[in-house]
Amino acid sequence: xxxxxxxxxxxxxxxxxxxxxxxxxxxxxxxxxxxxxxxxxxxxxxxxxxxxxxxxxxxxxxxxxxxxxxxxxxxxxxxxxxxxxxxxxxxxxxxxxxxxxxxxxxxxxxxxxxxxxxxxxxxxxxxxxxxxxxxxxxxxxxxxxxxxxxxxxxxxxxxxxxxxxxxxxxxxxxxxxxxxxxxxxxxxxxxxxxxxxxxxxxxxxxxxxxxxxxxxxxxxxxxxxxxxxxxxxxxxxxxxxxxxxxxxxxxxxxxxxxxxxxxxxxxxxxxxxxxxxxxxxxxxxxxxxxxxxxxxxxxxxxxxxxxxxxxxxxxxxxxxxxxxxxxxxxxxxxxxxxxxxxxx
Length: 344
What we know:
Elements: H1 3-32, H2 37-45, E1 49-54, E2 65-69, H3 76-83, E3 88-93, H4 102-108, E4 111-114, H5 121-134, E5 138-141, H6 159-166, E6 172-178, E7 202-208, H7 218-234, H8 238-242, E8 255-257, E9 261-265, E10 270-272, E11 275-277, E12 287-288, E13 292-297, E14 310-316, E15 323-331, E16 337-339
Parallel strand pairs: 1-7, 2-5, 2-6, 3-4, 3-5
Antiparallel strand pairs: 6-7, 8-9, 9-12, 10-11, 13-14, 14-15, 15-16
Helix pairs in contact: 1-2, 1-4, 2-3
Pathway: Lipid metabolism
Organism: Tautonia sociabilis
Domain Phospholipid/glycerol acyltransferase: 65-180
């Protein structure tokens, strides 16, 4: 066997050892001291992820709470578990937890497997959610129910409306996981895993917002998550702020405001392997881009519900308040903007 091959095998063996050691350490902690799993997660994530937490004061120190977050990568559940100041639980697609080693670790870290489809999926998800909340614990949900294939937020499932209406006393805390797109565990570059990371130690910003007002809808929940995302974008490192989202297609409809800049854009639709995600809609200028939240308000300045025409306002990273765009528009429940007046 040649010396080069021996070196290659040694490097592969070393990489496998470095990968397995943290996982085995977490499995040991989860088995022996499950209450210490959050501290262990922070330690294991530290070499690759610098986690910056904003708005932790919005999480109640005791009692039940429902945290709803965007879903960008395979490691989101672990990032959220490490960022929440209290021990919590998360509902995760059962398929993801079938991975050897990673699956058992995730379960011991507080991740609860639920089916992603079928007649029993909704009932299983609701039953698991109510059990956690009724114990007075924190529950994390990724209401998109799938990992983003374009770096933007997708539609939210209506299960969160059912949970919120059935447990009115439980605060629903929006959360945005920022700067995970581009990591090997995201779909950036059109694939998961086997790619070169854009940052060796990535700063991930986890931004919690104030509780979503009742009555909660998937639209109001989505808007709250995106608003938390503006704060997260503001805390990004300068290099990450300057990095454009490569899935935004300049050939597709977009909204570029003459004074506020790019506010909304479109991506290609994704339909592969049973995963379908909409990146564009006929007549729409797209969705809010990273670092921007959009809303439609009435004559009195109060936010309007989905598919209601009014004045379009933008909250842009670096600006402390909402700014009027001078445009009339409506935003549908999936976050797509439809203009009713021409761009000035």
